[in-house]
Amino acid sequence: MTAVAATVRAGTPARRGIRRLGWHLVCLVLLAVLLYPVVWLVFSSVKPAEEILSSLRLLPERFIMSNYTEVFGDVAGESVWRFLGNSLVVSTGAVIGNVVSCALAAYAFSWLRFRLRGPLFAFMIATIMLPVHVLLIPQYTIFHRLEMIDTFWPLILPKLLATDAFFVFLIVQFMRGLPGELGDAARIDGCGPIRIFGYVVLPLAKPALVTTAIFTFIWSWNDFFSQLIYLNTPENYTLPLALRLFIDQTSETSYGAMMAMSVLTLLPIALFFFAFQRLLVQGVATTGLSG
User: Fold this and answer.
1) 49 with 88, same domain?
2) What is the pTM for the complete model shown?
3) Longest dimension (CA), the chain
4) Which H/E stretch holds residue 77?
5) Which residues have a Cβ under 8 Å from the Cβ of 240 and sit 6 or more positions away?
6) CATH no. for residue 107?
7) Which H or E run contains 177?
8) How far apart are CA 232 and CA 123, in angstroms?
C-alpha cells in the first residue's frame, strides 16, 4: 500500500503538468483564432486590391506600400492627420467628461446622505437597460435646436452630464469599499464634502477612474454610429467615418487603402492598451468587474 501511494503521489505532478499543458494549448488555439482577423488585416494592408479579393493566402505574394501612400494623401480633400486629430479631440473630451462627471455622481451616491438617494440611484441604474436607439431621436432633436449638428459637442457634452450609468455604478462600488473612518477623520480636521472628495476619496479611487478612462477612450475611439449621426462634413470626420470615404468617393472600392486606414485606426488603441495595461488590470481587479 505504501508503494502504491508513493506511485500515485509521484504521478500527480505529471498529471498536473499534462493538464496545465493542455490548458495552455487550448488558450493558444483560442488566441490564434481571435488574432487571425487582426493579422489578416495587417497583411491585407500591404496587398494589391485584386489579391485581397482573390487569394486566400495569409501572406501576400507581393508586398506594396502604395496603400499607405494613398491613405496619407488627400482623402476627399482632407488629410489623414485631420481625421486623427478629430478622433483625438472627441475621445479626449469624452474621457475628461466621463471621469469628472461620473466621479462626482458616484461620490454623491456613495458618501453623501440626502433624501431620495436610494430611488435616484435605482433610477440611474435602470437607464443602463435603455437602448441607445431609444434616446437617439430626442437627443438629435435637442442638439439640432441648439445648432450643434456637425460639431463635436453632441459627442462630448453628454459625457459631462454623467450619462454613462455603467461607469457611475462602477465607481460607486469602488468608493463604497473605502474606509468610512477616513471621512470621519477628515471632518474632524475641518474638511467639508468638497475637500473630502478632493483630498481623500479622489486619490484612493484612482484604479476605478483609470478603468473608466481606458474604457471610455476605447469605446469613443471605435464609435461609429453616433459619429455617423452627428458629423456630416468630411472636415469633421473621425477615423472610423473616414473609412467610408474609400467606398463612396469612387465607383470602385479601394480595398487596399481601406485596409491600411483600418490598421491606422487600430494602432492608437493597441498603443493605448499596452501603455496602460497594468493600470487596467489593477482597476478591473479592484472594482469588482472580475465578478
Assistant:
1) no
2) 0.81
3) 86
4) none
5) 87, 221, 222, 223, 224, 227, 265
6) 1.10.3720.10
7) none
8) 34
- Residue 225 sits in the same domain as residue 130: yes
First to last CA, the chain: 44
**Residues 118 and 21 grouped into a single domain:** no
**Backbone phi, then psi, for 150, in 5-degree steps?**
65, 30
Rg from Cα positions in the chain: 25
Q: What dihedral angle (degrees, nearest 10) is formed by the CA atoms of 213, 214, 216, 218?
A: 160
In the chain, how many domains are there?
A: 2
What is the full per-residue pLDDT of the chain (291 aa) written as tens digits? 455 445 445 457 777 888 888 898 999 999 888 888 888 888 888 888 778 877 777 888 888 888 888 888 777 677 888 999 999 999 999 999 999 999 999 999 999 888 888 899 999 999 888 888 888 899 999 999 999 999 999 999 999 998 899 999 999 988 988 888 888 888 888 888 899 998 899 988 888 898 899 899 999 999 999 999 999 998 999 998 988 877 655 555 678 888 888 888 888 888 877 877 777 666 666 654 444
- What torsion do the CA atoms of 94, 95, 97, 99 make, to the nearest 10 degrees? 150
Residue ending a domain, choose from 67, 91, 106: 67
Final residue of a domain: which of 67, 98, 120? 67
Q: Are 36 and 87 found together in one domain?
A: no
Does 89 lie in the same domain as 9?
Answer: no
Cell numbers for 112, please give them.
453623501
CB 258 within 8 A of CB 247: yes
Structural domain that includes position 154: 74-287
